[in-house]
Design brief:
The complex is a heterodimer of chains A (about 300) and B (about 250). Chain A contains ten helices and 13 strands. With about 300 residues, chain A is an alpha/beta fold. By secondary structure, chain B is mainly alpha-helical. Chain B has one domain. Helices cover about 80% and strands about 0% of the residues of chain B. In chain B, helix 2 packs parallel to helix 5. The chains are: A alpha/beta (about 300), B mainly alpha (about 250). Chains A and B meet through helix 2 and helix 3 of A and helix 1 and helix 3 of B.
Chain lengths: ~300, ~250
């Protein structure tokens, strides 16, 4: 941890909408230069938290400080130093790709001359140079998302907020977006993102919190969380019909935990290869897969259900 | 205010693509209306006892100008505002920068008034070609029309930000804008209306706008009455801006 004051600091942060508590007294700190993730299912309170950090949603209770400033009082000053990639695109479909970047930079009060240079650099960075003078409308979802990322960087933000940056994109487009975000991280841009994709959190986040029902369930680096809350490896057994009932005890000390899902059984173990013949003999699955433990396993452990709901 | 101009710039960027079409229709509409009303209907009206004191086209032209301010402002504050919140979400993009809600609203209203200003400027030139401007005071009908634009644009922007569906606008156009256009002393004096309706007409901002524009183009300027009209329109605009700011805040910050 850095000795500097955190860029974002939250204590007992609460957001309610009428009778509904979307964010229920959470604490977190985001340090300079790190990639910090909010992971959780839909409705866990991730987007509400992001909107509070983005200073477009007043804090109901608790403390929130961003770049050492108070969002309630200094919203515009904070926003001038943030980059925002919202969950829903806010691009202007009638304007060209380039015009979208330039007009957004104008909102920040940048000069046209400066913006002409910056727009070219940013479009180069997100690989949209060839589409610079095309309207936005016919672009693919992945291209629009990359344009939104380019636009969010126009004010050279201290912190980039990304609300589900790859939701709705096809696998190839997701990888291009991840690659760009990874490069930003290498350049030292602080990233704060929400996601309900485990692989995204593992790819991008240095540290993350898992949210559920407005609360933070766990916090740590992806690796720490996997080590602490799961096992090294997982043996996945698939069955054509219903998976049989089985307890961890049935395998002696080899299996630390068993998760029975509708179509498969997950055996959590430190040595997958050693377990495979035993599992074959006892349960007779249709197929067996040994894989490394992921955040999805952590989430299953924490909430007893998969993230997709 | 400097921040409001940044939001205003966005709307001008879009208008750059559309201005040709909008200028052509701003030019054609008055020519068509004034030809029909002046040369056609006006001939019939003027043949009678001539109770208006002036040619029908000179009587109706300033009212058309005032109504134009109302209509353009209403259109430009209805769908574009709803779109910027719900469809294109342009306001949300603006609010992610250092622009504040009040800058976003001010930028929108500035653009609405720009549209009113361009269209009514063209209209005035056409009116002058039709010989419908009888006094140099007529030049003040231009800012008056812009004030009418604010008196209608601001409350309709408030509605545009609050409405869940755009069907709200058809109701407003059918039950507010169109009746006002027909009964605010535009085509005939409100003194022809039954007393009850006449009082309603006096309470509407369009009647104040129509009467003010007419006094200015005909040169029948009485300071007291004119100031009352301006004050009424300004009060309407001020309440409208206040409502719009509340409704924008509710829609954008939650």
């Amino acid at each position: 941890m850095s000795a500097e004051a955190p860029l974002i600091h939250a204590r007992g942060l609460v957001k309610t909408f009428g009778g509904l508590t979307a964010v229920d007294a959470i604490d977190f700190d985001v340090q300079k230069g790190e990639a910090f993730g909010f992971l959780g299912p839909n409705g866990a309170g991730k987007s509400s938290t992001m909107r509070m950090i983005g200073c477009v949603s007043p804090v109901t209770a608790g403390t929130l400080s961003i770049l050492g400033l108070d969002p309630g009082r200094d919203g515009p000053a904070i926003r001038s130093r943030l980059g925002v990639v919202p969950q829903l695109d806010t691009l202007d479909n009638e304007l060209t790709v380039r015009e979208n970047v330039i007009i957004y930079g104008r909102y920040f009060g940048l000069s046209r001359r400066e913006l002409r240079v910056r727009a070219d650099e940013l479009l180069e960075f997100v690989q949209l140079t060839e589409r610079a003078n095309d309207p936005v409308e016919p672009l693919s979802g992945g291209m629009k998302r990359r344009l939104t990322i380019a636009r969010s960087l126009v004010n050279e933000p201290d912190v980039l907020l990304l609300d589900e940056p790859t939701t709705g994109l096809d696998p190839q487009a997701r990888h291009v977006v991840w690659d760009r975000l990874f490069r930003l991280k290498q350049r030292g841009v602080t990233l704060v993102l929400t996601t309900h994709y485990m692989d995204e959190a593992e790819q991008l986040c240095d540290r993350l919190v898992i949210m559920d029902h407005g609360k933070i369930a766990e916090e740590g680096s992806p690796l720490e969380l996997i080590r602490r809350l799961s096992s090294r490896e997982v043996v996945e057994l698939r069955f054509a019909g219903e998976a049989p009932e089985i307890e961890a005890d049935a395998f002696g000390g080899q299996v630390s935990r068993v998760e029975v899902l509708p179509d498969r059984i997950l055996l959590y173990t430190d040595d997958g290869d050693a377990l495979v013949p035993v599992a074959h003999e006892r349960l007779g699955p249709d197929s067996v897969l040994v894989r490394r433990s992921t955040l999805e396993d952590v989430f299953l452990r924490l909430t007893g259900r998969t993230l997709v709901d | 205010m400097a921040l409001a101009f940044r939001a205003y710039e966005y709307w001008l960027l879009g208008y750059r693509r559309r201005w040709r079409g909008s200028v052509v229709s701003s030019l054609l509409n008055p020519v068509l209306y004034l030809t029909a009303l002046g040369v056609g209907l006006g001939k019939l009206v003027n043949k009678g006892s001539h109770p208006l004191g002036v040619s029908y086209v000179a009587y109706v032209a300033p009212a058309m100008l005032a109504a134009l301010g109302m209509q353009i402002a209403a259109f430009e504050s209805a769908w574009p505002v709803m779109a910027a919140i719900r469809w294109t979400r342009v306001y949300h993009a603006m609010l992610a920068t250092q622009l504040r809600v009040r800058d976003i609203l001010a930028g929108q209203l500035l653009y609405v008034l720009t549209r009113v200003g361009i269209a009514s400027g063209i209209y005035l030139v056409v009116l002058s070609a039709f010989g419908a401007l009888k006094s140099p005071w007529a030049i003040l009908a231009w800012p008056t029309t812009i004030l009418i634009g604010l008196a209608f644009g601001a409350p309709i922007a408030a509605l545009g930000a609050a409405a869940k569906k755009d069907s709200a606008f058809s109701a407003v156009f059918r039950f507010v804008i169109t009746p006002l256009f027909l009964f605010s002393g535009t085509f005939f004096p409100v003194t022809r209306l039954p007393v009850g309706l006449r009082l309603v007409a006096y309470a509407t901002p369009l009647w104040h706008g129509v009467d003010l524009c007419r006094r200015l183009t005909l040169g029948d300027v009485s300071l007291g009455i004119c100031l009352v009209h301006v004050a009424y329109l300004a009060a309407f605009a001020a309440v409208g801006v206040w409502l719009a700011l509340r409704s924008y805040t509710k829609a954008l910050v939650s």
